[in-house]
């Protein structure tokens, strides 16, 4: 799933490539992705693209005061196509294409952005709104992970009592961090995914805050300026423990371990994060003694 660094990079990509263009035809290939009906997607046509923005893991393109907003979910992506097929796609086809926005650029070219979604679980969402805060998912977001001071971050964690892994991926508590970067942040901070927010020491909270900013800002620096098509690979290449089960921890050399759930898993290093104790690989895991 694209998280804060990739969405920030996509927003910058749109600022660099789409701002100044005029929206042409909008093709909807998967009707289920469009979650709003008033204004219709056709209302975007003929409008100037004037900006792009990010709210947590939501991406928005400002079309002269009318926003096209998307949440890419787990398998969605944005592609920039220099020479798109001029024919409208067939709705309900087997192509991963969900929505295509054609542009007319000042240079006379006619590119598009394609929103695609792989797999069978269709969770990609698209909204056309005048006010981004009317999108329910945006309205529910907690403060952005990169907008908090350390004191605000500490107060946020003390306001809840849950495992830290669960807390920092809760978008209503803290916006922008998902499964992958939470693994990296906790590994960098040397904190167990199962540490409780209420009982974490001030020192550990400070370590976590520093690690959060370090990991996210480094990922943003690596991602911004990359072509949209290369962002997924850039994300994977920067991971130290996430999705690296069975590999050696780059810090201590221990084996990276995994805890699996029904639809996802997370990775950690026992030596770096749990004092050598292995987390049981089941939903109600406890530290093995």
Structure, described:
With 289 residues, the protein is an alpha+beta fold. Helix content is 26%, strand content 20%. It is built from 8 helices and 10 strands. The strands form 3 sheets. Strands 1-6-7-5 form a 4-stranded antiparallel sheet, with no helix packed on it. A 4-stranded antiparallel sheet has the order 2-3-4-8, covered by helices on one side. Helix 3 (150-158) packs across helix 6. The chain starts with a helix and ends in a 16-residue tail after the last helix. Mean pLDDT is 93; it is low at 283-289.
What brief labels describe this structure?
289 residues, alpha+beta, four-stranded antiparallel beta sheet, 8 helices, elongated
Cα(first) to Cα(last) distance is 34 Å
The average pLDDT is: 93
| Class by SSE composition | alpha+beta
- The percent range for strand residues is 15-25%
Uncertain segments are: 283-289
Label the overall shape. elongated
Describe the sheet with the most strands.
Answer: 4 strands, antiparallel
Helix content: 25-40%
| Sheet with most strands: strand arrangement | 1-6-7-5
Strand segment count? 10
Helix count equals: 8
Topology pattern, helix = H, strand = E: HEEEEEEEEHHHHHHEEH
Radius of gyration equals 20 Å
